Amino acid sequence: MPSLGLVLDLSHTGFAAVLSADGETVLASQVRQGGTRHDDLGDWLESLLKDAGSGGGWKDLGWICVGLGPGSFTGIRIGMAFAQGVALPGKIPLHGFTSFEALFLSAPEGRAAVAAIAANAGRFYLARGLEDPGVLTSAEALADAAGNATVLTPADASWDYPRIARHALSSKRDARKPYYLQLSAAEDKAAADQVARGS
After folding, report:
1. Average pLDDT taken over every residue of the chain
2. How many CB atoms lie within 10 A of CB 25?
3. What pLDDT, on the 0 to 100 scale, is given for residue 75?
4. Which of 9, 99, 186, 199 is surrounded by the most beta carbons within 10 Å?
């Protein structure tokens, strides 16, 4: 009988947590630094499962919640591909959450806040609340939007893994579709090439 759940997000600083099956108790967790390559992802998660008391490893997982972005294109793809690779063969339910949701769910309640995640070229992904889908914006627009509100960033977050898990498990968000908010460099180039060919 599966007895554990996994929360995984590599779209920014990167974190993973092994929770009890009901999602209420954190049994093991770790936050990674931004820029980590994640080429040891399997070993890292297996060590967390062992720290949580899992003798059976992946087969002990009853569900997986994975971060969909926005954030690092590479981190999003690695995290989602790994989660799908574990979930699909084992028929483990897979649930998604956005970087914005993780930030707002981990923030102190009752405080005005905006969520900001660094993008490329000095821009930011910005959301003004849990239900806000977010936009890609400039540093100046972020400062205007923030005003006197607290700016929530992944680097400063104290992740509330149970809240993130409960939200993801109840939201029914498609965990197979990344949440980018902008084109990747390859997609941007392909779109520019198509425009050039058409003109």
Report:
1. 92
2. 13
3. 93
4. 9
Rounded distance between C-alpha atoms, residue 94 and residue 111, angstroms: 31
Q: What distance lies between CA 49 and its chain's CA centroid?
A: 19
Sheet of 123-127, strand order: 135-138, 123-127, 113-118, 150-152
In this structure, what token pair is assigned to residue 101? 């949701």
Q: What is the pLDDT of residues 44-85, one digit of tens each?
A: 999 999 999 998 889 999 999 999 999 999 999 999 999 999
Mean pLDDT of 179-186: 76
Residue 120, number of CB atoms within 10 A of its CB: 10
The whole model's pTM is what? 0.90
Residue 159's φ and ψ, nearest 5 degrees, are: -65, 130
How far apart, in whole angstroms, are the C-alpha atoms of residue 18 and residue 112? 30
Q: Average the pLDDT over 8-18 and give the result.
A: 95
For 68, phi then psi, to 5°, come to -105, -5
Question: CB of 113 within 8 A of CB of 185?
Answer: no
CA–CA gap between residue 147 and residue 142 (Å, rounded): 9
A 10 A CB-CB count for 161 gives 25
- Could you tell me the CA-to-CA distances from 132 to 125, 128, 157 in Å, in that order? 11, 6, 19
Largest Cα–Cα distance of the chain, in whole Å? 61
Please report the domains of the chain, with CATH numbers, ordered by start residue. Answer: 4-184 (3.30.420.40)
